[in-house]
Write a structure and sequence with these properties.
single chain, about 200 residues, mainly alpha, 9 helices
Length: about 200
């Protein structure tokens, strides 16, 4: 398998993971409030979560899950509630030194869990599984290829958003600027719920 053959998969994965959404918004917020180093667990959780979803999609589980309407609705409902709860926490927080509401960053397991219930993540990885199945000789090798690709590229994309959040934190000087950023990030997180239902 050559790099030329894998390039379309890499571009698809990078485009789908770098575009704004729930995980990118949370990575930005975590970078702004806690810095890049303390945000590594949640960024890694998002990356591993999406990688395992992609691995499952490559093995055929994604199509089965997406074929069950009741499970889709449950995933959307739990996912929406969790994202809304996180948006409220972010929106109500102030500067990192003043805020007591968000005392520590979201952890690795929460990042993995968030990606597992996200129907958008399943839809993207199932689409990739359908589009790039010819890249591997069997379902196991394809599941591993898809999982590793999504995990590594999502980690890179989310690290960019996290670093952007840390950069924003260095530019913010006053409490009202922090409140404005937090409100904006919370708004983006709430907006990211809408595509889950459309």
């Amino acid at each position: 398998m050559t790099i030329e053959a894998l390039l379309p998969l890499f571009l698809f994965t990078f485009t789908s993971t770098i575009t704004p959404g729930g995980a990118t918004t949370l990575a930005t917020a975590s970078g702004a409030h806690f810095g890049f180093r303390r945000s590594i667990p949640v960024v890694a959780g998002f990356a591993v979560g999406l990688g395992t979803v992609a691995c499952a999609a490559g093995a055929g589980l994604g199509s089965l899950l997406l074929a069950l309407p009741a499970l889709q609705i449950a995933m959307k409902a739990f996912g929406s509630l969790y994202l809304f709860w996180l948006a409220v926490r972010i929106g109500r927080s102030g500067p990192p030194k003043i805020s007591r509401e968000v005392a520590r960053p979201v952890g690795f397991l929460a990042g993995v869990w968030m990606l597992w219930y996200n129907p958008k993540g399943w839809a993207i990885t199932v689409s990739a599984a359908a589009s790039f199945a010819a890249l591997a000789t069997g379902p196991v090798s394809f599941a591993i290829l898809l999982g590793l690709t999504f995990c590594l590229i999502a980690g890179f994309s989310l690290a960019i958003w996290c670093a952007l959040g840390q950069l924003l934190a260095r530019l913010l000087k006053t409490e009202w600027q922090w409140h404005a950023l937090n409100f904006f990030l919370a708004f983006l997180l709430v907006i990211s719920i809408i595509p889950m239902w459309t």
